[in-house]
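Q: Given only this backbone (330 positions), what sequence would you predict?
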C-alpha cells in the first residue's frame, strides 16, 4: 500500500503534467497567428496582378518581416487577409498605349526637366485626397467610404506630408497642397485639382515638377491585394509612376517629356531599391499632365496595404528620388 505522502506526490505530478500539456497546446495555437501577421506584412503572393492582361514577374520569394508596430497594439484587420504580391517586370515600362517606345533608350537619354535655382521647385497635390489604407494597429479612422476618409492624418495626404518633409530635408523646395478635391463629390475631382495646379503654376512659375500622389486599388472577385517591397528589412508597399498621353484624343503634345522624367526617376530608384517600384504605367488618358511636362501620378501602395506600409514606401522613394531630383537643379 502507498503511503499518504506518496499518493499526494503522485497526484501533484499528474496535475503538473496536465497543466504543462495544456499550456503547450495554448502556445501552439498562438504560433500560427504570429506567423500569419508576419506573412501579411511581407509575403509576396504566388499570383499575378489583377490588372487585365498584365504580365508580372515576382521579384523574390516570401521573406521574414519586420513589424512596424508593437505586437501588443496589433488589431486584426483586412491587412491580414489581403493577398500580398510583389509586382515586377523585366522592363521599366508597362505600355498600355499603341505607341511603340524603347523605354531603356529613353531612360538612358535622361530628362529635359530642370529645377529652378530659386523659388518653389516641386508641387505635391492629391486629386483623390480621401484615399486611405486598410485600418490596422493604431491607424484607425472614421470612414467616408470604403477605405476613404477625410481624416488628414490617415488618408493619402498623410503620405504627402511625409514626402514633403523628406524632400525638403534633402534640400528641395516643395509646396504641398493639402486640399480635398474628391469629397463630397468624387466626380469632377480631376477638374478641380487641375484648376488648382494651373493656379500654382501661375503663382509660382519656378515649379517644374508636379506629383499627384494617390494610393492604388487592386482587387478582383472579392479578393483584395496589397503590394509588397522587401528593402533592407523594411515592410513596405510598392509604388508606381503613371504617365498619361494624348491617345485618348485630348491634346497633350509634350507627354514624352513627362515620360522621360518618370523613367529617369524609375532608373535611379531601381538602382537603390530594386523591389520598390512597379513598372511605369503609360496610359491613353492624360490625367492633367498636359499642364506641366514634369507632372506625374505617383501611386503609393494599394487599398490592401496599411498606412505604415505606405509611409515606409514613401520614405524609400524619397531617399532614392531626392538625389536624382537634386541633380536636375540648375
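A: Predicted residues:
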Amino acid at each position: 500500500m502507498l503511503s499518504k505522502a506518496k499518493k499526494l506526490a503522485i497526484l501533484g505530478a499528474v496535475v503538473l503534467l496536465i497543466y504543462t500539456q495544456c499550456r503547450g497546446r495554448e502556445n501552439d495555437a498562438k504560433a500560427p497567428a504570429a506567423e500569419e501577421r508576419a506573412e501579411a506584412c511581407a509575403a509576396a503572393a504566388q499570383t499575378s496582378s489583377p490588372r487585365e492582361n498584365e504580365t508580372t514577374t515576382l521579384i523574390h520569394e516570401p521573406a521574414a518581416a519586420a513589424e512596424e508596430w508593437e505586437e501588443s497594439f496589433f488589431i486584426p484587420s483586412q491587412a491580414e487577409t489581403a493577398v500580398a504580391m510583389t509586382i515586377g517586370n523585366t522592363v521599366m515600362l508597362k505600355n498600355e498605349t499603341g505607341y511603340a517606345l524603347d523605354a531603356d533608350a529613353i531612360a538612358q537619354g535622361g530628362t529635359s526637366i530642370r529645377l529652378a535655382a530659386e523659388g518653389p521647385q516641386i508641387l505635391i497635390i492629391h486629386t483623390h485626397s480621401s484615399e486611405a489604407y486598410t485600418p490596422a494597429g493604431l491607424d484607425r479612422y472614421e470612414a467616408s467610404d470604403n477605405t476613404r476618409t477625410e481624416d488628414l492624418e490617415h488618408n493619402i495626404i498623410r503620405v504627402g506630408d511625409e514626402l514633403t518633409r523628406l524632400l525638403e530635408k534633402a534640400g528641395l523646395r516643395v509646396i504641398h497642397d493639402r486640399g480635398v478635391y474628391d469629397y463630397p463629390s468624387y466626380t469632377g475631382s480631376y477638374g478641380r485639382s487641375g484648376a488648382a495646379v494651373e493656379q500654382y503654376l501661375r503663382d509660382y512659375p519656378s515649379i517644374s515638377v508636379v506629383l499627384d500622389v494617390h494610393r492604388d486599388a487592386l482587387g478582383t472577385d472579392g479578393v483584395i491585394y496589397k503590394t509588397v517591397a522587401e528593402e533592407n528589412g523594411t515592410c513596405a508597399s510598392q509604388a508606381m509612376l503613371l504617365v498619361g498621353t494624348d491617345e485618348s484624343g485630348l491634346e497633350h503634345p509634350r507627354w514624352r517629356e513627362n515620360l522621360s522624367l518618370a523613367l529617369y526617376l524609375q532608373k535611379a530608384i531601381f538602382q537603390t531599391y530594386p523591389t520598390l517600384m512597379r513598372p511605369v504605367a503609360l496610359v491613353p488618358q492624360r490625367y492633367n499632365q498636359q499642364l506641366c511636362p514634369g507632372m506625374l501620378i505617383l501611386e503609393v501602395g494599394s487599398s490592401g496595404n496599411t498606412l505604415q506600409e505606405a509611409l515606409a514606401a514613401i520614405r524609400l522613394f524619397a531617399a532614392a528620388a531626392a538625389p536624382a531630383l537634386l541633380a536636375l537643379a540648375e
